[in-house]
Amino acid sequence: MKHLKSIAGFLIAAAAICIGGCQFRPDVLSARSHSESPDEVVQVTLSSADAKMIKSRQLYFSLVIANCTEDAGGFPAEPTIGGQPVPNFSFPTDGDTVEIIARVPSRIYAKYSKPCVFLQGGGYFSGTIKSSKAPIVRESGPNNSFKPNLLRKSA
């Protein structure tokens, strides 16, 4: 009986340490955005290995849009991977990378002069998730660089 109490005590202590101290820090490989009125669509690239870890540990998170130069504040946006809401944990993790997509109202996105994004959240018993900030590169829209060659009239 004495050994059972010490084992139980050890397991409780280990769980408390893990819950309070297990922080997963995925690497944001890239971040970009474009406008789809009335929203700004933010796309974050993450390695598939990091996405698999999020899925297996069932880590709920938001894509938080914030100023790169400030530590406080930010707008938490609901992410999807492969069109699946992250909280369902049924998103695809095939390939080398995954794209996380979130929509932010344009009027809110415009408040950030130097926008950055990071992942932040956690699971019930599986620790927390927080990535470092990554600057968001703003894409202006479709590439309209195609210029057709004009046909010359033969004489």
The secondary-structure class comes to alpha+beta
Taken together, the total number of domains comes to 1
CATH class: Mainly Beta
pLDDT average, as an integer? 84
Q: Biggest β-sheet, characterized? A: 6 strands, mixed
| Overall shape | globular
- Helicity, as a percent range: 10-25%
Strand content: 35-45%
Describe this protein's structure:
The protein has 155 residues and is of the alpha+beta class. The longest helix is centred in the first third of the chain and has 20 residues, at 2-21. It has one domain (26-138): Immunoglobulin-like. Strands 1, 4, 5, 9, 10 and 11 form a 6-stranded mixed beta sheet that branches. A 6-stranded mixed beta sheet has the order 7-6-8-3-2-12. A hairpin with a 2-residue loop joins strand 6 and strand 7. It has 3 helices and 12 strands; from the N terminus they run αβββαβββββαββββ.
